[in-house]
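Methods — Computational structure assignment.
A single polypeptide chain was analysed. Its primary sequence is given first, followed by the predicted tertiary structure written as structure tokens.
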Amino acid sequence: MKRLRQQVRRIGPHFRTVLVSGEPGTGKELVARALHRMSPVSDGPFVVCRAAAVKDALTERGGSDRTADDVGRLVKRSVRGTLFLDRISDPSLETQGLLLRALTQHERTQSRLDASQKTDLRIIASTEEDLRILVATGRFSQELYQRLATVDITLPPLRERMEDLPELARYLLDRSAQLYGRGVREIADEAMERMQRYLWPGNVGEMESVLRNSVLRSAEEVLESHHLPAFTEASRPEQSMTGTDRSMRLQDVVEQHVLRVLKDCGGNKLRASEMLGISRSTLYRMLDAGVSADTLR
């Protein structure tokens, strides 16, 4: 994470477009906001546009014929600031084409203006999928990818940086305690060990959700192991496994964890996605990929 902070400090003052990649819950929006704070437009707006809203912004008033007007409203909100396009891999190829066309038209308009009239606009896009694979399989526009991925920042999943977990857990514990006005100050050794054995498929977002709920269950100054949810069956695989076995086991563990959280939430997908620290659309994709509807009954 020190390397990531150095990268943000190095890129922040100079970027025009950045692509931030990483699994759900790894902190892509936090990185985007940090880049914005480091940029020359830090005093300007940071406009978040969810991918699902991109299509609405481009097509709600007449489709491609009104692309310039619709995107113009979106860009206008981001003038002398940063436009954050969250989950850029979600829109269809048609919508990607509309977005690309609108950005191209905006750039052409800017090129015809005097320097004093030009608007300083930074763009950051985030993705949970590898856009290079999507481009290769024809599911993402190569031209839009090249436009957005001038700089690419990849966030590692929490399971690959477990040395950060104790400090991160204590930070999230303090923030949760302040949020709910609780007196929890420490994490017991046994509780910390359980957290370090867990794979955290929902990454930091899931950890924050777990700690918030655990703080609410605790009336003590120390967060004990019994305050944490029952996620021991999703512990880290044994180191003696082969690389193939470990990969297969991880997939099984994630699927079992999703199932358990869904059942604990009574099948409520919105609540389950909040507990997992992921979006509902990500949960639906995970279910489509590996969990049958019969299993959930």
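Note: The longest strand covers residues 121-127.
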